[in-house]
Amino acid sequence: MPYVAQQPHVAQALGVLTQPVELIWAMNGVDIPQFEKISGGFHYVAGGEPKGPNDLLVDESYARQNHLRVGATVNLLNWNWHLAGIVQGGMLGRFVVPLTTLQTLTSNPGRISQILVKLDNPDSTDEEVKRLNELLKGNLRAISIADLLSQFNINALPLLPQFISVLKVLNIVTALMVVFLSMYTAVVERTREIGILKALGAKPFKILDILIREALVLALLGWVIGIALTFLAKLLLSGILPASFPVANAPDWWPIALVIAVVGALLGAIYPGLKAARQDAIEALAYE
Length: 288
Known about the structure:
Helix content is 51%, strand content 17%. The protein has 288 residues and is of the alpha+beta class.
């Protein structure tokens, strides 16, 4: 790390030791006062900066999910930590502890997993990343925050976008078929009522118009209820497991869902509706 810190245009360098804890969550050991300088500091929701070697910081989502309060004892890595502060998420993962404590606990004295670098001129980030990689000669790899975040995009994982696309198509086809069958069943079950309308003088077009209007109303109502249920599901998951299952609504899919509902309803209503409207009134009345 001193070698990196001595390079031109490097204003500050800070070592971080990362240790997996739960699932994809990690604990990061860092010199917290130095991290405060390089990053501008944590935003504390409760408590404050760790003072002792066994002090721990957790983000507010994990604290809310596990009902933790400042001063509580938290067992992680088979070690009892004192919860010194609860911070806003987005900085150094779920758990932050003093670097030397984590190094001792994981038998990694003097070792770090990564080096955070602050440049004197952020506009020259790409040039400095390239120069550092040339100096380090493969022993370490320098990467900008922008490039690091781009690796968490699903498009960065091989075949995952294609897999998700296949799932989307299957879900759309399944939803379309469910809506179609529901409307088809609803129309077929009303064959007798359609026969009564024909006996009263209703034209086939009038019967079809009634069925289509009903189908559209049901489709729109189902679309609205479905969107409302997504907000309810998000509210429940965010309240019960805020740290484990982050949920985000996808408004871009609302028009697609509406098209699926309307097309499925129309397909499910028009075909059996035409068939029933053309049926002889006596046969329709005799339908059970």
